[in-house]
Structure formats: C-alpha cells, structure tokens
Amino acid sequence: MTNIGVIGGAGYVGLVTGVGLAALGHKVTSMDLDQERLAMLRTGKSAVYEDGLESILSRLNEIEQITFTDDQSEAVRNSDVLFIAVGTPSLSDGAADLSAVIAVAEQLRDEISEYTVVVVKSTVPVGTLNVVTDILSQKLTEGEDFDVVSNPEFLREGSGLIDFFAPSRIIVGAASERAKSVLREIYKPLLDGTTVVDIPWIDSACEIPYVETDATSAQLTKYAANAYLATRISFINEIAGISEKVGGNIDDIVEGLGLDPRIGSGYLQPGIGFGGPCLDKDLRALITVARENYYDPVMFNGVLQRNELQLREVINKITAAVGPSLYQKRIALLGLAFKEGTNDVRHSLSIRLYRVLRDQGASVIGHDLLAVDEATELEPDLEATSNLDAVLNGAEVIVALNSDSVYAEIDWPQVKLAGISPYIVDTRGILDHRALTSNDLIFDVLGSSG
Ligand code: UDX
Fold first, then answer.
1. Which superfamily is assigned to 3-211 in CATH?
2. Would the pLDDT of 56 be above 90?
3. Are 236 and 268 contacting, i.e. CB atoms less than 8 angstroms apart?
4. Ligand 1 centroid from CA 212, angstroms
5. Which of 103, 198, 279, 333 gives 20 to 30 Å between its CA and that of 429?
6. Which residues line ligand 1 (CB under 6 A)?
7. Residues 231-248: what's their mean pLDDT?
8. Structure confidence by residue, pLDDT tens digits, 336-382
9. What is the dihedral of CA 103, 106, 111, 117, to 10 degrees?
10. Position in ligand 1 atom list of the atom nearest CA 348
C-alpha cells in the first residue's frame, strides 16, 4: 500500500486515476480546487459521467480509502507519491497550456519535505518533465528529495475505469531506478488483479504489458497514440468523402479494410470528425513541438484540415436538402456530447454544428441521453431534451451525429405520422436504413451514395 496524492483529482483524468489507485488498495488523498465537485465526490457523486464510477466511489468512501481536499499541502503531507493530473488545454497557437502544471510544481517545490515521487499523469509536451524538475530543483535535490516520472494515461471518456483496470499497456518513463520501483509497487495489485473493492473489469488472467522507458519516450508515446487515432479518423473520413463521389458503400469498405489484421476494423467509423478535449488538443501540441524543433509535420496538418472540413461536409448535406436558406428550418441534432456514452460537451462538433445552424437562423433542437444539462449550460439558447420523440416530432431535417444505439431503434413510421417527411443525414451509419427506405424517407449516409 502506498500513500498517494492526486492533484487535479476532481477532473476527468484525476478522478479515474484516484478512484482506480484507491481500488488497488492505496491510500489516496485527492486534491482539487473545485469545491462543488469535491462536495459531490464526498457523497459518492460525480459530475463526470463514467460507467460504474459512482458505485465504486461510494464503497471507497465508506472504507475511507480515498479522501477529498482542496488543500494541496494536505495532499503532500499525506503522500509519498503525487500524481499531477491537472488540465493542459490548448493555447491559441496550438501549444499546450502548462500554467496549471507549473503552478502545481512551484507549490510542491515549497511543500515537499521528504523523498516524494512526482508522477506527471497529465498529457504534457516533450520536455515538460524537465521544467517540473527544474522548478523542484530550485529548493530540493533530485534523487534525494524527489524524482519526476512520466506515466501517461490512455483513458477514453465514458469508459475510463475499464481503461484503468484493463489497460492495453502501462507506460512509465523515468531515469531513476528508485522511482521506477515505486511505480512498479503501485501498479503491482493491478498486474496481480487484486483490489480492495469489487471491480467487474479486472481480469487477472490477462497479462498487462508494463513498459519502462525514458521520460521523453513516454511523453511522446502518448502524443503518438492520440495523433494516430486522429489520423485514423481523418483517414476514414477522407475515404468516405471519396467513396461518396464515386458511388461506394463505406460500410462495405470498412469491412473489407478491417479484415487486414494490420489494419483492423476498430476506430474506423466516419462521422462529423473527432471532437472532445483530447485528440485535437494533443495533435495541435504535437504539431507545435515539431515546428519548435524545425520539423514540418505535413501529415498531421492534413489530419487537422480534414477534420475542419468534415463539419462543412455535414452542413453542405443539410443545405443540399433544404436549400441555402436555413432560416426557421426545424433541424434535429441527435447527439450533443462529443461522442456517445459521455456527458462531456467540451469541443463537441455537434455543438459547433448547432452554432453554425443557429447563426443561419435555423430552429435547432438537440437530443442527448446524458449531456442535455451540460449542452444547455454551454449554450443557454439551445433547445435540448433527452425525449427523442419530442426532438423528432416536426423536424424537417434530422442529423444523426453520434452512434448511440437508441438512434438505430427509431420508429420511423411513427415519425412520418407527424405529417412531415424529414430529410435525414446519418453521419455515423447508425440508423436503420431498411426502415427508412420502406417508409419512403429520403436519407444521406456519410460515405455512401445512392
Ligand atoms: C481519446 C483516446 O481514445 C484516448 O485513448 C485518450 O486517452 C484520450 O483521447 P476520447 O477523446 O475520450 O479518447 O474519445 P474517443 O473515443 O477516442 O473519440 C474521440 C472522437 O473521435 C469523438 O468525437 C468520436 O466521436 C470520434 N470518433 C471515434 C470517430 O469519429 N470515429 C471513430 O471510429 C472513433
């Protein structure tokens, strides 16, 4: 058992990390500045939707395996290892904003009094660990008072706990053997499949690859992973665009692609593009790092450009259906979060699409199962509900934007009874195309024509 502090513990990465480490049997002090979120977490409630999180958190609260505080010095006092999980959003030029990481490091410099391993969990540009080390070294001695480690996260929103307890790999970047052994000790229960509360996703049978490398390679691996995922999405969106032009069927193309074991069929769904707080941010940060080191990331610029153009593709489909004037046209958007299975609307392309349609005078109504409150908090003028019938009723255009299974089960004859035959844009290939055809509804599937 290790005494662990998580700084930024109420954020998306920090919360999953804190709960996960506590479930492994470590004593976790989770620190954050957001009082409202801290209060919720102490009652077992989370503002961040994560499948299974609240029940596990409640059990951990009961056995006092995790505590929540707004006092960083308390977290430092209680801990031998500190995970930094604060946000690193994009600056206007695409570089990562490290101000929160730097502020934490400056406070740790003044607070650490005995050997502490500082683990950077936040996704940070290559070289950031040197910045943290330099700050701590202003008052402390590396190797005696502290060591800094890179331990990047590979969590997907909505399935973060699954990704924590059944990771495809654990990567630790460090120079210090002492620090590496501390991290091995921390993750040993995960590798052994032993937890102090019931975790459904633990599979002690499966071997979790544990990779130790240097800090730079660990940080760059994280960026490379997200850059590849973004590239994969822009790749399939570009194939979908070409397929539409020449009369192809994107579902069949993806099936054929995926049968090549070097390619695989996962993560090849065309759509409005990659949204969310990670892929775009990390890709832009990687492009910035490349440029700062006089290397021209031509391909990654193309990945970004395709993603920007994808929103235009969807808008063009809408205007092609209802004419260039969207004024007072009733348009239903199915899916407001940046993807299905999350309540996170940060960098949601559905919200960007809403803003474009609203600014052209359209009457927009949005549907989401989890993110209605978050969407209307972000856009108070947005009409949104989790009542799907209310959204579909009277719509002239219906745009399916995420692949929530509820959209595959829409009762199209019922929709027609409302007296309007809506034009349907299926950006994810999620809708029941046979039912649409049998109900004489005109629809467009991104990537397939005819
Ligand atoms: C991503 C990475 O998957 C995760 O490993 C990393 O730690 C954080 O960033 P996340 O942003 O939560 O996770 O969502 P993800 O499921 O990757 O989807 C990102 C975006 O790509 C969403 O907008 C989603 O709709 C879109 N997407 C995903 C597609 O358009 N097609 C796909 O096939 C998959």
1. NAD(P)-binding Rossmann-like Domain (3.40.50.720)
2. yes
3. yes
4. 26
5. 279
6. 153-157, 226, 229, 233, 267-269, 271, 274-276, 278-279, 338-339
7. 97
8. 999 999 999 999 999 999 999 999 999 999 999 999 999 999 999 99
9. 90
10. 23
**214-450: CATH class:** alpha beta
- Asked whether residue 418 carries a pLDDT value surpassing 90, the answer given is no
Q: What's the pTM value of the predicted model, to 2 decimals?
A: 0.94
Based on the residue annotation, tell me whether 206 is a catalytic residue of this protein.
Answer: no
Structure tokens belonging to residue 322: 């209802």
Burial of 376 (0-12, 13-18, 19+ CB in 10 A): middle
Domain regions of the chain by residue span: 3-211, 214-450
Catalytic residue among 82, 136, 149, 278: 278
Q: Region 42-55: what's the mean pLDDT?
A: 93
From 51, 171, 303, 338, the mutation candidate for ligand 1 (largest count of ligand atoms within 8 A of CB) is: 338
- Taking the centre of ligand 1 as the mean of its atom positions, its distance from the CA of residue 418, in whole angstroms, is 35
* Residue identifier of the C-alpha nearest atom 3 of ligand 1: 156
Q: Distance between CA atoms of 412 and 427, rounded to whole angstroms?
A: 17
Amino acid code (one letter) for 73: S
